[in-house]
Structure formats: structure tokens, C-alpha cells
Amino acid sequence: MQTNLSEYARSLPRADEAESILRSCVHCGFCNATCPTYQVLGDELDGPRGRIYLIKSLLEGGEATEKTQQHLDRCLTCRNCETTCPSGVEYHTLLDIGRQEIERSARRPMSQRLLRRTLSFLLPRRRLFAGLLQIGQTVRPLLPSSLKSRIPDAMSDSGQRPKGQHARRMLMLEGCVQPSLSPNTNAAAARVLDRLGISVKETPEGSPTAGCCGAVEYHLNDQEAGLARARQNIDAWWPAIQAGAEAIVQTASGCGAFVKEYGKLLSRDPDYAEKAKAVSALALDISEVLDSEPLDGLELRPLPTAAFHCPCTLQHAQRLGGKVEGLLTRLGLRLSPVPDAHLCCGSAGTYSITEPALARTLRDNKIRALETGRPDIILTANIGCQTHLAGGTQTPVRHWIEIIDEHLQNQGERVEQ
Questions:
Q1: Core vs surface per residue 210-220: b (16+ CB within 10 A) or e
Q2: pLDDT tens per residue, the chain (417 residues)?
Q3: Cα(80)–Cα(228) distance, rounded to whole angstroms?
Q4: Residue 282's closest CA among 299, 302, 301, 259?
Q5: Could you give the CA distance from residue 192 to residue 210 in angstroms, rounded to a whole number?
Q6: Pairwise CA distance, residues 395 & 187, whole Å
Q7: What's the CA gap between 166 and 399, in Å, rounded?
Q8: How many degrees, rounded to 5, is the angle at CA 352 between CA 344 and CA 266?
Q9: How far apart are CA 360 and CA 415, in angstroms?
């Protein structure tokens, strides 16, 4: 694709990067065939190729309109198009650049600005989010049905974290909303790793130690705030990394995808470039950790049939599609087939809040696909997908690591008896 960036666009910090990505696109349109929003809306400008043209026009001096912003907002950043693209176009990077630029140029309606600022302020702050969620769950019976469906049921941690210390040590990103929405997930991961002789160190909220990975703010176009959180996490982890921590484990694939990009996103920061690169190299989804361990002693008893929803951040961003399915099958779980498993469920971070109608359509489509084989349970690998899907089905939705932990605990109880 030929480009002619405006003089202003050439002055932007990522101008060369944007131009290189634009020129790699050959307008083949294969991306539209796998784009969830294009499939629903049928509008060229709501597919990757059309959005690339909009960003190109913007960077060549075209008008930054509210309509252009709307088309870019509607993108899920599921990166399905990148899996499909024969030319290797780094679409998500170009989208970040385009969204940041149009955010500077096109003023949003007050209602949108307020919603996005609220989400950016609330979601990354773990304790604040937990407190407000608890209040919402308490008054949930009194709310109208339209609001009830937005507040998930309270979930409890079904066990303690292991206290033993092993020679092998890993860090774990606790995240921002997951400790409140699904408090058992990280604990379950720690217990499974403990059985494999690996100790997990928490990264508690507060001070400059840890918390949100930064993806929430970054993808709401407050990119500097997102990168500031990335730097905080790097500072928190660095002493443990120097002391020999062998990995940084994530159980939320959305967080994992973003942490693995720290090296790229901070490559221009002289103080953090090398550290960020090292952190990204150490970042592993929990499935990657288990896949490299001897699991012979972890074989599970026969379980009910499950359907697995592979989040976009796992299969398209991290390119780990099939990894969890292989692990679950290896451990004896029966998986039912899922048609169109490559398509997004509509959660996409805050997308289910900022684009609720599209998100519901995509969720309903995904649930129909997941329930095709009449599974007893739906498993996934990301807290956003888990909460979003659970709001639209009576089938239980859990993180897959919890099922592994639960049945290992049962196995251990039977052995002791």
C-alpha cells in the first residue's frame, strides 16, 4: 500500500512504525473473512481493511471525524485478522497508533468521555473495584433486571494458597479485577504449581509493587497511564527476577498478552527498554508452564464433558491456540467440539461496556457454538471472557485451571483415605 503521510503525521513518535505497517498491507481482504464485527455488520469500514484505510487517511491529513472514531472503537482488537493475514500486517499496533491520534483530534460526547474515564479510574484499582463490586452484589436483588445482568454473582476461594517453599520460584501477576470476580483462579494455579514443585510469589496491590498490567487504560487510549503501570510492575518484579525467579505467570490471557508486549511498547524508553524486554521474555501463560512440566502424576479421574472457549488474547495475540485443549485432553478431560472457535465472544476488555449491543450479539453467537455439544461446563482462560459468557448462559463457566486443581484435590483426598 502506497503512503503519503502528512507533515504533521511524520512528526509523531511512531510515524515510521505506522508507515511500515501500512505499506505491508496488500488489500487482499482475507482479514474481513474472519473479522467478527464485519461478519455482524457487513460494513467494509467495520473490518480490518476498512479500518486500515481510515487510519491511512487520518495520517495523510484526512479529517478526524466522529464516524471514523466510531469505526475504530468498534474493533475488538481480537487480532483474528493477524492470524489470517498472509502478509503479516501488525494490525493491532497500527490500530493503537490510529486510536491515539484520533483521540487527540476528535472530541467525544460527554457521556462517552465520562464512561471511559470511570472505567480507566475504577478497573485498575483492585481494592476500590472490590469494594464497589461487593456493594453491587449486596443490593443486586433490588435492582432492575437490566442492571442485575451487569453484576456477576459473588464467587469464593475454595482453598488456601500453599505455604511450602520450593527451590523453583515463579512470580504471578494477580491482576486488577480477577481477584474480586474469580478469587479462586490464581489460588488454584498456585496449588497446581505447588504439586509440581514450584512456589509462586504474589504481587500484592499497593505502593509501586504491582496490580493492573496496564491494558485497561492503554486500550481506552490513555496509553501513557497504561505504560506507567507497566513500569510499576517491572520495578516490582525486578528484584525477584534478579534473585532467580524463572517466570512471570499469568492466568488471565488478556494480561499475559499485554505483558508480553512490554518489551515492544517500552523499546523507546532508555530506562526501561532492556528490563521490559527481559520481563516479556519471562512472561508465560499458565498453560505454557504446565505444558513443559511432567504431568504423569496429575492424571485426573473421568470428568463431565466440557467446552473450551479459547480467548482471542490466547489464540491470536499469544498464538497459543490449542495449548489448553491439548493439556486438558492429556489430563483426561473430554472436550466437545466448538464451531467457529476462532471467533471472539465480545468481551474484549471493556468492550462489553463501551459497545454493549455488539458485545451481546457476539456473546450469544459464541454461547450457541459452545453449547452445541451440550457440555456440562464451559471453560476458558481469561476473566473477561469468563464473566461475559456467564452473564448469558445457565451453563457454569469456569477458568480451566480451577477444574484441574479441584480434581487434583479430590484425587489427593482419595489417596489419603
A1: bbbbbbbbbbb
A2: 888 899 999 999 999 999 999 999 999 999 999 999 999 999 999 999 999 999 999 999 999 999 999 999 999 999 999 999 999 999 999 999 999 999 988 889 999 999 999 999 999 999 999 898 889 888 878 877 767 777 877 777 766 888 878 999 999 998 899 999 999 999 999 999 998 999 997 654 444 567 899 999 999 989 999 999 999 999 999 999 999 999 999 999 999 999 999 999 999 999 999 999 999 999 999 999 999 888 776 666 667 789 999 999 999 999 999 999 999 988 888 999 999 999 999 999 999 999 999 999 999 999 999 999 999 999 999 999 999 999 999 999 999 999 998 887 665 543 332
A3: 28
A4: 259
A5: 23
A6: 23
A7: 25
A8: 75
A9: 45
- Output the pTM of the full model: 0.92
In angstroms, the CA 358 to CA 346 distance is 7
Q: Which residues of 263-272 are buried (b: 16+ CB within 10 A; e: fewer)?
A: bebbeeeeeb
* Nearest residue to 23 via CA among 46, 55, 47: 55
Expressed in angstroms, the distance from the first to the final Cα of the chain is 68
What SS3 class is residue 195? helix
Residue type at 142 in one-letter notation: L
Which residues lie across from 169 on neighbouring strands?
A: 199
For the beta sheet containing 198-201, the strands, ordered from the edge strand earlier in sequence to the opposite edge, are 198-201, 168-172, 248-250, 283-285
Dihedral class, residue 22 (left if φ above 0, else alpha if ψ from -120 to 50, else beta): alpha
Query: Measured between alpha carbons, how far is 397 from 308 in angstroms, rounded to an integer?
Result: 10
Grid cell listed for 372: 452445541
SS3 250: strand
Residue that is written with C-alpha cell 468481551 in the block: 347
Q: For each of the domains in the chain, give its residue range(s) and CATH number, in order of start.
A: 7-105 (1.10.1060.10), 295-416 (3.40.50.1860)
| Contacts of residue 313, Cβ cutoff 8 Å, sequence gap at least 6 | 253, 254, 256, 257, 382
Phi-psi bin for 346: left (phi > 0), alpha (psi -120 to 50), beta? Answer: left
| Cα 66 from Cα 274, distance rounded (Å) | 38
* Phi, psi of 274, deg, nearest 5: -70, -40
